TrEMBL record:
Annotated Pfam families: NIPSNAP
Protein name: NIPSNAP family protein
InterPro entries in the record: Dimeric_a/b-barrel, NIPSNAP
TM helices/strands, residue ranges: none
Domain of life: Bacteria
Domain NIPSNAP: 141-244
Amino acid sequence: MLVTFSGYTQSKRDFYLIRVYHCKNDEQLTRTETFIEKAWKPAAKRYGVTKVGVFKPITNDTAAMKKLYLLIPAPSTDYFYQLEDRMLNDTKFQGDGMDYLQAKHDNPTYERFETIVLRSFTDMPHLDLPALKNPAQMRIYELRSYESASEKIYRKKVEMFNKGGEIILFKRLNFNAVFYGEVLSGARMPNLMYMTSFENMDDRNEHWKSFVEDPEWKRLSTMSEYQNTVSKIDIVFLRPTQYSDL
């Protein structure tokens, strides 16, 4: 879920909350999606949220755990708790989301969910909506996580994006980045995460080809201070749901 907010003073840097629902089957996924679409999204808009996007991974593995990704930007970490508290005291929200909120122990709407808290990079302090022409359901959103071997090495990779100019390179090549974030709390720390967006998979592949062939990337990637800054890369391809605002 991707959210922008109104009624709050813009902070110097955004904070992001990523929530990933894990559902064992289509029935659980449908119930969770219904909750987001019919209860959570309307309630969020009542409390100042202006744009909501909901994403599902692109996969051909029918046996894999079903997932739903939420991305919520905010001016502070307190915003996340304030929004949740308001919803819990909202009688309309409680009624609209009853199936999800009152789920029984032997009939849950999901198996587990994981939560990641991030702070935006200094060189892209605020979330940006993609400037794409294709309908949302044709687009590709690429969510990447870069893990590092230690905190010190991780900081060098973050520096590579900011001071080193990797963000500038992505912008020049029109990667339509949605956000870049330092993970403050999560299961794969130390790591950073960022999301780029494309018209379709062919467009994505063409952009990455131009990236690795760009002289500036070749210069940056061979600098001694930035060697071995990433120990593991995790990539998830996402597509917005039909009820997404994006």
